[in-house]
Amino acid sequence: MVESDTLARKVEALVALRDPGSRAEALDLRLLAGGMSRSTWAMTVRMDDDEGSSSDVDLVLQLLPESGLLEGDLVAEFELLRALAGTSVSAPRPFWLDPDGSVLGAPGLITGRVEGTCDPFILSTDEPLDTRLGLARNFIELLASLTTVDVSDLVRARRLEDPGLDAARLAVETWSARHEAVRTESSPELALIRSWLDSHAPTTPRRVLVHGDFKPGNILVRDGEVAALLDWETAHLGSPLEDLGWVTNPVRRGEHQIADHWEATDMIREFEKRSGIEVDPAQLRWWNVFSCYKLAVIVLSGVHGYLTGGSAHLHHQPTWLYRAMFKMIREAS
Hints:
Layout lengths: L3 H15 L3 E10 L7 E11 L4 E10 L10 H11 L9 E5 L9 E5 L16 H18 L5 H5 L10 H16 L5 H12 L8 E3 L8 E4 L2 E5 L6 E3 L1 H8 L5 H4 L7 H12 L5 H27 L11 H14 L1
Antiparallel strand pairs: 1-2, 2-3, 3-5, 4-5, 6-9, 7-8
Helix pairs in contact: 3-9, 5-10, 6-10, 6-11, 7-10, 10-11
């Protein structure tokens, strides 16, 4: 693990390179808990300009590991965060970027720090039911707002690719390629599931901004309201039902649902109300299966990272996900 003093000097060098008119002092660097795909540091940067004025900015630094669970394009992520400024989607403000790690020692992204609580199971706390239901509705409202974000400039600049009508099939190809890159043994179960996904892939007439990992664990909450949506490394253009398929995925009900009060049908109804998009049950079921497929590949990436020494986190074979997918496929027949 890099020492905080060494990293502070590297941050200062990056600011000097990206903003030559300013002088920066990186203070109070501390490694934050969590972050399965990146190491995350909180810090304060004191900025001095040529006129002698000084200001402190609270920031977050994310560094890509040698082998992480998720991959992404830092430049595209940086530009997307810039595009989200001024929209209804609350996200951290991007400050500086080191896409190749030539300054920081590893590819890194520095954003503004947003105050709030990040709890993957915030809907299952001892807070009053009405409070948790209000927060659950806020989450779906945030999810629906992604479908209204105009990212046409990013598409024209080729920071985001438009997958066209084949967004679903291309999503399967993308995650299948990732599986091949990290596969340590044969996976006949995933081969069968991929065959089903390929043969039942829906068309995608309308493409929207997809977060790719929408969950309470990536949302900061402050005073009972959404303060920011974090972790945009897998954001892309795709189906309006992709993120909804992720959050209504039955294996993640512990994060997204409140038993007997806020279940998949309630989430779908709220999403339709907020987005104006009618949800086709068969297509949503396809995205539920795909979400498990994608999650299985993410877990297998962790297995590969541990076995090759690139990650210290131990992961197990995702056989529980295989069972869930086969059950959903049988029910869809």
